[in-house]
Amino acid sequence: MKNNLDLHRYLREYTFFENDPSGVQLKIVPSRPMTRFTTLTGPGGPLPVYINEFWTSRQRQAASLHEISYRACFKPQLPRFFIELLTEQGDTVYDPFSGRGTTVLEAALLGRNVISNDVNPLSEILCRPRLSIPDLEGIHQRLLAIPMDKTRSAEIDLSMFFHRETLGEIVSLQDYLRQRHERCLEDTWDRWIRMVATNRLTGHSRGFFSVYTLPPNQAASAERQKKINRNRRQEPEYRDTRSLILRKSKALLKNMTPEMSHNLRRAGTSALFLEKDARDTPEIAEDTVQLTVTSPPFLDVVQYSQDNWLRCWFNAVDVREIEQKLTVTRKLEDWTVVMAGGFSELFRVTRTGGWVAFEVGEVRSGTVRLEEQVIPLGLRAGFTCEGVLINQQDFTKTSNIWGINNNRAGTNTNRIVLFRKATRPYRQPASF
Ligand SMILES: C[S@@+](CC[C@H](N)C(=O)[O-])C[C@H]1O[C@@H](n2cnc3c(N)ncnc32)[C@H](O)[C@@H]1O
């Protein structure tokens, strides 16, 4: 979609498609209404707002490879919508706040080149291994070759989370991976096992190494876990870490096709992973990125470092060091200052004619609408603003588009502000 007017027509006439049971996108549901349309008065004039069920799991099944939990991650269908619409094979897709790497992975699966950045080193640990996926038998053999000593203990008390013998295995694994890394011997299988083990550490089912606790993207503090154990009258039971890692690996690789594996490998060879502040990424050349799909940290809504303290411990990542680098702003003015810097950097790296899809949420119970903050920042950086897309699951049921919360509050609505680095000096389109 190279032309703005084509894009606006496409969004207005967008028709809901539905998966058939095998996941193939076949059926058009003609009775469904097309996009609802309104306008938002922004600093550059009225902007179109398109509301529809643009991307939902009802429409397209996502690759199982995405199923790694991360705080405030978006669904793969969201980046996919923009990647398919606004890029071609071989184009570069970027995410400056990459998290678990949803955008990057989806772009790689679709044969695009990728750049990932996140100030949290866990982001690369969770994403890179999924760009060069190993075979299950190789993972199994490597797991058997790792010496596991069930009697080992950790330097901190983790008995409220793990059975003594499970912890022995976790520490053995941690030590093995550390040594392989220090000796520059870490390979595809080690990195995969590190990624899966990091994901399996704690959670709320028997598929995790821990006793029942908070969901895997939110580690409880030791004190809180003691309380959970008391309330539930539970004690950690032994978990076989090797078989849980293998089981999760199988689940992740469940619906991989040879074409998907090939695309991932291709993207993986040229992928750039950065661990920088999104405002300062000189490693990315000017005018190279065709599309950015991203969601920034939202004010003080999510504490990425506290949520990840056990994952950081396992990977010898210093939580306090990350805490200082992460953007956790309490005041809207501070948040906009950081995001303004992010937009200038995005403008530098975006190709002329390229796009930025910037996901924002309602924060503080809808009293702050971040799209209204973000639009002037993008314009000031030099972008044009093409409008706002609101993806609303069960589109027909909800009437008040401004009154609903985004998926962080438990529903399935996302708001995306769409910017473009225009080919010519910006002029508001005569009609959307
Ligand atoms: C909303 S999450 C992104 C989630 C991602 N879309 C996904 O699907 O996993 C925001 C991310 O921004 C990262 N972050 C926070 N401050 C940053 C900064 N100044 N520069 C780069 N990354 C930052 C956090 O570590 C977090 O992973």
Notes on the structure:
By secondary structure, the chain is α/β, with parallel strands linked by helices. It has 2 domains: 4-121 and 257-303 and 320-420, Rossmann fold; 136-252, no CATH class. Helix content is 37%, strand content 17%. The protein has 15 helices and 13 strands. The strands form 3 sheets. It has a 9-stranded mixed β-sheet with strand order 3-4-12-13-9-8-5-6-7, with helices on both faces. Strand 3 and strand 4 (45-52) form a beta hairpin. Helix 2 (77-86) packs across helix 3. The two termini are 15 Å apart. The model is unreliable at 396-411 (pLDDT under 50). The chain binds S-adenosylmethionine (SAM). Residues 70, 72-74, 97, 99-100, 102, 117-120, 123, 277-278, 295, 297, 304, 326-327 line the site of S-adenosylmethionine.
List keywords for this structure.
15 helices; 2 domains; alpha/beta; binds S-adenosylmethionine; 13 strands; 17% strand; two-stranded antiparallel ribbon; 432 residues; Rossmann fold; globular; nine-stranded mixed sheet
CATH architecture label name of the largest domain = 3-Layer(aba) Sandwich
Task: Give the class-level CATH name of the largest domain.
Answer: Alpha Beta
Q: N- to C-terminal separation?
A: 15 Å
Overall tally of structural domains:
2
Instruction: Give a list of the ligands.
Output: S-adenosylmethionine
> Strand-residue fraction?
15-25%
What general form does the structure show?
globular
Overall average residue pLDDT: 88
CATH-derived topology of the largest domain: Rossmann fold
- Fraction of helical residues: 25-40%
